[in-house]
Amino acid sequence: MDWTFLKTLKFEELNLDKEDQDILHSLAERLQDNYPYHAQHYAGQMIKPPHPLAQAAQWMASFVNPNNHALDGGRATSALELEVISQLGQMMGFTPVLGHLTAGGTMANLEALWISRKIDANTTVLANELAHYTHSRMTEVLGIPFKAMPADAEGRMCLSDLKLVLTALKSKGQRATIVATLGTTGTGSIDPLEDIIDLAKQFDARIHVDAAYGGYFKLADVQHGSKRHFEAVQYADSIVIDPHKHGLQPYGCGAVLFKDPTVGRFYKHDSPYTYFTSTDLHLGEITLECSRSGAAAAGVWATLKKFPLVPRGVFAKRLNHSLQAANGLHRQALDFGYHSLPPALDICVFSTPGKKASLLSAQNRDFFERKAAEGIHLALLKLKPSQCPWAIEWDIEELVVIRSVLMKPEHNDPHFWKAVLG
Ligand SMILES: Cc1ncc(COP(=O)(O)O)c(C=O)c1O
């Protein structure tokens, strides 16, 4: 599938004049300059096609153009947003829950870390060295000390190092906020959340779970060893999950959830302009951003009507296809004599065969280019020796490998795996 259908879209309800239609035609031309994100043969970055229902719901709501900052600007969609947050909270085991949608995972993580600092002005944020870069950046924005914790060979936060750092902080009378990532961006690794929670209890630490990418896999048949860590999310203090990643939404839709609704007090502020129309909660009263898209809430709400967040439901089965796709590609890679990391979720990381890191890196870059020329779009990733269990001669510091994010159910197809690797 390519983007030529954009040229034939009809906007009958909009009463567009000839000039507007010509502009849209030029836009459709400009939009052709894109990778084919919707197609099976796009398996590169974390880009999942939004569901047409979500697009239609957003488009419908955009006629109203609601602003979920206050009930003044978005009465109906604020109610939809509360319903959506309650459903996300239920999936994660946060009942009751306080939360809201955000522009994306970065903003959502910023808010969770900001609340951590509000609760303890001296907190230090500890996150897996392979956690999303947003955590070191956002702690810089917030002025919170940040420490990257070493990862083990499977990309998971190393518990013994975490304990050492927690002990050192305790000896100085300090406490930590531990960020556990359920689904790292590079390899989809799962931090050992259940064990982290035990440590957090001993050291009175706060726990934030970055499940921006992996959160929806709570409903799916993740590997036995990871299941308990997904089950443990209910014991976290805050969670980030991005509907614009696995939740079938167009971009501009993350979510932050808090287990303790009383953290809403830290958001307390006065708005001289809004909050007049009702004494009910205005979402702006518990949000750092001011104006926010009510249409985004409509998109998630409609999608959850069709795909309720239940284990073994249609949505969970779609996610299972992605898990099977990554495992299938991994097994096929091994059969072809490639190096491959066992996938924790739906991200498969592999390398063409060989031993010397510099040659392999060059070979993998060529492979990536060759595949793109064939119309199969993958991604690249840099691995350090500690992240790489393969027997390799390390003549350079980082190995460039191939990364494939298999977010679409159509990726669960042996013909596709052979086409990727062949
Ligand atoms: C684990 C994780 N956290 C946070 C983010 C940042 O989210 P966003 O790109 O929505 O700002 C990402 C993005 O890939 C991610 O994978």
Topology:
Layout: H1 18-30, H2 52-64, H3 75-92, E1 98-102, H4 105-119, E2 124-128, H5 134-142, E3 146-149, H6 159-171, E4 176-181, H7 193-203, E5 206-210, H8 224-231, E6 238-241, E7 254-258, H9 294-306, H10 314-335, E8 339-341, E9 347-351, H11 357-374, E10 379-383, E11 399-405, H12 414-421
Helix pairs in contact: 2-9, 3-9, 4-5, 6-7, 10-12
The structure holds pyridoxal-5'-phosphate (PLP).
Pyridoxal-5'-phosphate binds next to α4.
Describe the protein in words.
By secondary structure, this protein is of the alpha/beta class. It has 3 domains: 1-34, no CATH class; 59-306, Aspartate Aminotransferase, domain 2, CATH 3.40.640.10; 314-421, Aspartate Aminotransferase, domain 1 (Alpha-Beta Complex). It is built from 12 helices and 11 strands. It has helices at 18-30, 52-64, 75-92, 105-119, 134-142, 159-171, 193-203, 224-231, 294-306, 314-335, 357-374, 414-421; strands at residues 98-102, 124-128, 146-149, 176-181, 206-210, 238-241, 254-258, 339-341, 347-351, 379-383, 399-405. The strands form 2 sheets. The protein has a 7-stranded mixed sheet, with helices on both faces. Helix 2 (52-64) runs antiparallel to helix 9, helix 4 (105-119) crosses helix 5 (134-142) and helix 10 crosses helix 12. The chain is globular. The protein starts with 17 loop residues before the first helix and ends with a helix. The mean pLDDT is 97. Pyridoxal-5'-phosphate (PLP) binds next to helix 4.
